[in-house]
Amino acid sequence: MKETLEQIRREALAALEGAGSAQELETLRVQYLGKKGELTAVLKQMGKLSPEERPVMGQLANEVREALTASLARRQQELEAAGLEARLAAEAVDVTIPGRRPALGHKHPMSIALDELKEIFIGMGFQIAEGPEVELAEYNFTKLNTDEGHPAREWGDTFYMREDSSLLLRTQTSPMQVRTMEQQRPPIRVIAPGRVYRKDEVDATHSPMFHQVEGLVVDRGITMADLKGTLNTFVEALYGKGTKTRFRPHHFPFTEPSCEVDVQCHACGGAGCRVCKGEGWIELLGAGMVHPKVLQGVGIDTEIYSGFAFGIGVERMAMRRFSITDLRLIFENDMRFLSQF
Ligand code: PHE
User: Is the pTM of this model over 0.90?
Assistant: First the structure.
């Protein structure tokens, strides 16, 4: 019996040492220490021993059981530790690896140009107004001293929304002059940026949809000098101190007198080149003193108040600002183009 016990101890300890998993350990535990295990089987033989041998063998059997139990517990711990170690290694996060930069978008060149422009006028004390793109002909034309029969109301140029020509896509932001004055008494200082629509064929300088920024100032004693001072300040803020402007007489139904404002060509300094088509000047905006009929139409006393208005073509401004030579690029949304801004 002594040999059997020693043999069990040797074999079992070796087997436990070599166990590679919790499952293997459990199998060994059942095999040696379980109810039907090898050690238990030996203990069941104890009754057959002589009274002298019994305590000796009993003690040896206990020693073997303790040795196996201890070895089993140790191996179990080792395996658990190794398992944890392996999991930590597998799940390790290398915090030193550079992160993946998320693809952040940025402002469209038109938004950049518009924001710059707004910033300049806000700095001069203007407020920002917004109005509908689907507009009544009443506001787009009639209240702007452009009566029925005026060539500007031609079907060929305007996107009308009704047979009777009463509703349309606004052809200019100027209706915002009227809408502002109907809601606000002088002093008024507003700009109204937004989309406008005209039946133009698409080419390098034309689009059926483009942007304007309308400006309106109404107060006591406003003169052409205020108009020139404000617009020169705007042009210098946009294109730099000393940028020259030219005020040319023009006609708009809703301003009197009216003018167009040109900026000296940035590319050639006025000598004439490809950018300014040999002119030396580039047209920037239309402007004028608000026509008395327009003021009277909204119930503003022209004996007390006067005002000026202007309308800036934003695409033209942005094209010059970013040296863009084809208007279509602005609206095509080609990433190769847009990502340059
Ligand atoms: N609305 C005019 C245009 O579309 C521009 C303008 C605005 C002219 C305000 C005078 C005053 O061309």
Answer: no
